[in-house]
Amino acid sequence: MLLALCEWGQRHATALNELDRVADCVIRPRKERKTTAGAEPEPTTQPL
């Protein structure tokens, strides 16, 4: 979903001749965390 949103934003900026104002889309999978048996992993947040 994030990739689709990035692509839409780039197309929109191109149509408005503002592509120079758009940053590159960088989408990374979240890092795996080791958990103890039966424990729920804490949610992770990463800046966009």
Model description:
This protein is mainly α. It is built from one helix and no strands. This is Transcriptional regulator. It comes from Inquilinus ginsengisoli.
- CA-based shape: rod-shaped
Residue-averaged pLDDT, rounded? 81
Radius of gyration: 17 Å
What low-confidence regions span 5 or more consecutive residues with pLDDT below 50?
none
Protein name: Transcriptional regulator
Organism: Inquilinus ginsengisoli
Structure in a nutshell:
The protein has 1 helix and no strands. With 48 residues, it is mainly alpha-helical. The radius of gyration is 17 Å and the shape is rod-shaped.
Fill in the keyword field for this structure.
48 residues, mainly alpha, 1 helix, 29% helix, 0% strand, rod-shaped, Transcriptional regulator
Task: Show the helix and strand layout.
Elements lengths: L1 H14 L33
